[in-house]
Amino acid sequence: MRWNKISDAVIRRLPLYLRVLDDLAAEGEIELISSQELGDRAGVGPALVRKDLAWFGEFGKQGVGYEVSFLRKELKRILNLDQEIPVALVGIGSLGGALARYHLKRYGEHASPNLNLIALFDTDPNKIGSSINGIPVFPFSEVNKHVEALGIKMAMITVPADQAQEVAVLLTKAGIKGILNFAPVKLNVPSDVQVSNADFSLELQRLAYYLPTTKQN
Amino acid sequence: MRWNKISDAVIRRLPLYLRVLDDLAAEGEIELISSQELGDRAGVGPALVRKDLAWFGEFGKQGVGYEVSFLRKELKRILNLDQEIPVALVGIGSLGGALARYHLKRYGEHASPNLNLIALFDTDPNKIGSSINGIPVFPFSEVNKHVEALGIKMAMITVPADQAQEVAVLLTKAGIKGILNFAPVKLNVPSDVQVSNADFSLELQRLAYYLPTTKQN
DNA sequence: TAGATTGTTAATCGATTAACAATC
DNA sequence: TAGATTGTTAATCGATTAACAATC
After folding, report:
1. pLDDT tens-digit series, residues B98-141
2. What does the alpha-carbon distance between residue B140 and residue B210 come to, in Å, rounded to a whole number?
3. What is the pTM of this model?
4. B95 shares contact with chain A (CB less than 8 Å)
5. Sheet bearing B60-61, strands edge to edge
6. How many percent of chain B have pLDDT more than 70?
7. Tell me, in Å, how far CA of A19 is from C1' of D12?
8. Nearest 10 degrees: CA dihedral of A10, A16, A17, A22?
9. Residues of A in contact with B179 (CB under 8 A)
10. How many Cα atoms are found within 13 Å in the side-chain-facing hemisphere of A122?
């Protein structure tokens, strides 16, 4: 019952489960999996696995478990990954270019299964008109036109920190509903737009806290 | 009182606060900040800001607020960022090379303030012996030697998924205590080793859930 | 002093886990 | 049938928020 506002804590775990099922499907040996085993592989308790899935329906059989291929298909549907989703990337600097190349290399034109990187944007005239692995770099000033024409709803932001908020505003005006933000700033967006932050310098700083130190306490 | 096991939820917010203070210090105009204002800028409630900080001491003045430069220095100390922390990167493929270049470009030899990327590792003979912006690529087989000699405690993993677990094992054996993992796998490590996952295909999948669909309900 | 804001305790809220009847 | 595992409710746990005395 997704219309009843399912917690984001639940949603964050669904891709974890899906990955486990993808791996199992690729191996092709296991056809049934229990919440215990699925939880172990995803790093989640078995009761939580069952509770998470139960929000969306009854996918298992008592005494048996979950059918891998069926649950996988259902999770894809729930995550809207049963369709091709076009994705844009804004900011073809060192990080943006690298991410584009990395993803295109890893998944072909797929930024991830069913997530297709199909448009790059920048403001630099030297980059506009070029392409990376066949994906064209458009002028960011024309973002509205391309986003509409290509039906793009998701974008990654890899521009410098001081431009990220402005880019986010223009993206949301163009109709973007999901933003993966690599810039080290907090983005303010309308409430119908989801933002995920992928700022790994914050993660490094967090890890530093846990380092053993020789300082006297 | 960090010896009383402070929740990771708290620790994750400290770098957020620190960034706000860094920005304020760079502007150099604001010298005092209230929990309200700090919370607004970090995207956190004011009561939570005060509670988080109170775990580590009394840094504010009633009726006044927090002194920016003082709180900043204290947060750096708490996060162990009052010293230079050497960092290694394992896996100089398209993503690893890109991350190295990006970080070295952005921070000089600093992967982030006081986090210094000083050693790269790979198994490819064509890469070993080369360097990126002056940072040498060592053979991963010699990881123990270099990690010990350079006093490295943190590492980023950017190897393919099927090699990540093995790399993690060898890194922990070499004495690494913090791992930022970019590979799309769950790493099993000893309990005294912290892992942060920076897998943005999971984030993209999460965002896809929130996209408006034209499917009938 | 009067106004403001901290540090901290109590109340609330939400998420996870335990337990078990239902049932394959 | 007997054994196993789901779906779901109740209990627990933990994190956030509200409130306010202390005090700058």
Report:
1. 899 888 877 655 456 789 999 999 999 999 999 999 999 999 99
2. 41
3. 0.94
4. yes
5. B32-33, B65-67, B60-61
6. 94
7. 30
8. 150
9. 207
10. 23
